[in-house]
Amino acid sequence: MTATPRPRATASTRTWRPATEIERALHEAVMDNDRIGYLRVLATADLFHYVPKEHKDGGGNAYVPADDSQGIWCLVMRTAGERLPRRARFVVARTSLAQLAETWPGRRYSLHVNPGTPAFMRLTTGALDRRRWRRIVREKTAKLPTDTRPTRLLTTTAGPRTGPLAHALACGAHLSVANGVLWNEVGDVYDDYGREVSLLRESWGTATAQDWQEQMDALLAGRNSPVEPEFALDIRQELAQANTGAVDADLWRRACAAVLTDMEAPAEANAVVQELIGRILRYESRFRADDLLPPDGFVRSAVGYDYGRAVSFARWGLSARLCPAEAAEASILRAGELCRKAYGSWEDFSAGYALGRVLRFDTEEFGQWYTKVLEPHRVLTSEPGSPWRMIRW
């Protein structure tokens, strides 16, 4: 029988600087010997641990204990900026301080966070300790909906922040910010190996490398989303260029009907497009009210929804071990190039991405399919460290 590999509790010695704001805050708490402050940072941070791949693929979710150089049994957790380089036999699993408080395997294990770095702290794990964890988590997450991670812009200093790859990764930042994951990384995992495998299988019908490539090709060709929105938007864009300005809704409707007639499309096709035009106009009105569009703005294309998701899809595929890093990076770069050709600015792209999303999934309810794109848009267009403010379109 092959022995189950055991992760080491310590990291190799290297020059260290905090990769993200999370590690910086943890380091400050360590320097101040502030355990409560340390726990407050962990309360809203994702924590990652390593599990043998065959164990995870078999449905196992247990923590894998490690022993440190002093013979102390512990569970090792790492924050996003301190995840280890890709290893063939281990995969990343995500947890949280709240989950650890409920599932801790016993007080014989201490909790080691970011061992081998200046942001390391060893935490005791008795019943009183875990009660404190629960209290701090409740305080820090009181304003969040149940089981919701905070929307946050998370940048790693170890990832690209300028150049074509950074620009392309920023085209996938809607989902990165909504999910609270690093936006500028093409690494071992997007979020969590098991979650990525499940997401791709259940939501995308993707379980093999061939599946992944077929879906990626469709996204980069703009074929994953319905064709009707792009048809209608293309006609309006042509009218806008011909009329050097805004296009009257009636003119837009007549032009679409005329083109469909020339194409000898069935009558029901025109009915679908006419209904769609009404939806687009109502969404654009809401976009203007919420500053997703300027007062006189309109969406030129919704294909950015496919291109933006292609960035995340590439990272999910890499995380789920369905594609090599080279293929993921090439697909991300291609998505960035396509976004540049289709749009003129970050704001222009964001409005197109948002429209593609809500037309696909929202039924004018303006629920989570809308709020989960509006909130990242506001973060990405306003925060000083946002790639949309640092990287030229």
Can you give a write-up of this model?
The protein is of the alpha+beta class. Helix content is 53%, strand content 7%. The protein has 17 helices and six strands. The strands form two sheets. It has a four-stranded mixed beta sheet, with no helix packed on it. It has a two-stranded antiparallel ribbon with strand order 1-4. A hairpin with a 7-residue loop joins strand 5 (110-113) and strand 6 (121-123). Helix 1 runs antiparallel to helix 2 (35-43), helix 4 packs antiparallel against helix 5 and helix 7 packs across helix 16 (368-382). The chain is elongated. The relative contact order is 0.11.
Point out poorly predicted stretches: none
Instruction: State the total count of DSSP E strands.
Output: 6
Which structural class do the helices and strands define?
Answer: alpha+beta
Instruction: Give, in spatial order, the strands making up the sheet with the most strands.
Output: 2-3-5-6
Strand percentage: 5-15%
Give the N-to-C terminal Cα separation. 55 Å
Shape: elongated
What multimeric state do the chains show? single chain
The value of Rg in angstroms is 24 Å
Q: List the total number of helices.
A: 17
User: Helical percent range?
Assistant: 40-55%
Largest sheet: 4 strands, mixed
Quick description:
Helix content is 53%, strand content 7%. It has 393 residues and is α+β, with helices and mostly antiparallel strands.
Spell out the key features of this protein.
alpha+beta; 4-stranded mixed β-sheet; two-stranded antiparallel ribbon; 17 helices; 7% strand
